[in-house]
Queue: 2 jobs
Job 1
Amino acid sequence: MRKKALITGITGQDGAYLSRLLIDKGYQVHGIVRRVALEDPEHRLWRLKPILNKIKLHAGSLESYASLFNIVQKVKPDECYHLAAQSFVSYSFEDEFSTINTNINGTHFILSALKERAPKCKIYFAASSEMFGHVREIPQTENTPFHPRSPYGISKVAGFELTRNYREAYNLFACNGILFNHESPMRGYEFVTRKITLGVARIKAGLDKELRLGNLEAKRDWGFAGDFIEAMWLMLQEKKPDDYVVATGETHTVRRFVELAFDYAGLDWKKYVKQDKVLFRPAEVNQLIGDYSKAKRILGWKPKVKFEELVKMMMDEDLRRVKCQKQF
Ligand code: G4F
């Protein structure tokens, strides 16, 4: 019988890559989406467009225990990937209550529903390097203490602990993937990498004259989303559930990303980038760099796409898109 996977957050970047991977592996893929997404597929399901006829979508909400419970009961998944969240760190400062409520309750609800209706299901929780925040050591490992710096980071620490507690208290096969930043041509436009590559492509096409950014000195460990989702799947194929850092082991400033992207388009970034105080965060995570040696040792996982290739991949896609559809 085909294995059944249930993905929350299937409409996002990671959900789109993961769905493709699972379809290729022969899984029956189910996703939970908000009802509005089903009513407006053109805008909200664009990342899933090429595979819509190969997956089954269910209307539900992270805010409703009943909806998650009913979907879990109906699907009875073998594996569940809980990716859904309010995932934009900056926005979490503006609306801390909804970020904290949705992210923490959503994780609690899905864990509880799985415990009640599919206790054998293997569970992946999308934890985050944002949990390390004001970092206590460099590089960060599975043993580095957390010091989150945003409501989003706090909500992920709570999700991490809930997942670990369901594993220890109820014997669920529940894993935390502590993923560092991961990007791709399917990244949302609010995140800095995509904002930069689209911004450069628009400037190149003469559609914009400047690119406004916040803190250029922040350092991130940026990998390719297509590589990182493989680690999610590998965690659930292990004999025992555990927590893993997924990263590249390299760190770069936002400024470096900017330089490479503008260089690629043959432009001098200093002429176009304006720093805007409004885009700085009330509390910043200054430096992230992950040590993925546990994932390498146990899962046999390592990142394939290097930083420079990632910038080129995203630039190529945005230059192409802006060229064919000037509305971007
Ligand atoms: O691209 P970002 O918004 O990503 P951030 O905050 O690191 O979070 C991402 O990665 C996490 C994993 O560590 C995920 F959990 C999370 O969901 C998300 O995917 O910002 C990256 C850096 C920050 O230091 C920010 O201050 O870029 C800096 N930055 C500078 N100017 C900007 C901007 N970020 C954004 N979004 N927009 C700017 O104009």
Job 2
Amino acid sequence: MDSILKGKTVVVTGAVRGIGQAIASLCAQKGANIAVPYIGPDPTPALTEYRSYGVKAEAYECNVADFGATKTVCDKILADFGGVEALVNNAGITADKLILRMTEEDFDKVIAVNLKGAFNMTKHLTQNFMRQRSGAIVNISSVVGLMGNAGQANYAASKAGLIGMTKTVARELSSRGVTCNAVAPGFIDTAMTAALTAEQQDAIKRQIPLGTIGQAQDVARAVVFFLENRYVTGETIKVDGGMYI
Ligand code: NAI
């Protein structure tokens, strides 16, 4: 049976590596065209992978925290692809410090990318979704937004904020057939976690009932569940090996 994603266009922010690449890759394997607003690194390898599945894939250099730039890029994507059926707000950054040392800039930049970035993209594609009377939005949150984490006041606030925004957008757009959900990953095997020492990784694994670090594909499968299921909205799925039960 074909996926309902076949022939549709999915926008995945930051899908040039890591979790975003796994999400976009799974969507492309299901026949979806892929549009990627991003800031570095070179998107060519990721785009080559998506296109290998026979779909259209384009990247657009754009800071998601910039309201005007995201408007320009969303309009360009709508023109280039002739419509957008789904949005995955994946782009995110960290700037970890204990609250005692965290600067105003550390706080503002993480909120600007992780939370306002998702607002900007959602805002600029909402009219398109409402006009179509269908659409799916998935926000990549984090278990840290649910449980907190020392050294991540800015990041945890942004990820908790995304869950509040998810529930609100779900309520606002449901009458137009548009769903909005969140995925809250735990520790996932990406460049970020690979940079940790073996001791740090072991300490993390001890907090995870399933005993291992998750894979980006585990997160991608949860995202695709939301994109394919038209009767779930306002929900958050943890993909964390039981880290926060
Ligand atoms: P990553 O650093 O490998 O990829 C993030 C992507 O976001 C990059 O490709 C970059 O181009 C893009 N990006 C960053 N700032 C941007 C901006 N201002 N405008 C446009 N694009 C921008 O990160 P990773 O690990 O793949 O994480 C993806 C998402 O998953 C993030 O939202 C992160 O917070 C979240 N997450 C990751 C976890 C992990 O263990 N790796 C755990 C929980 C959540």
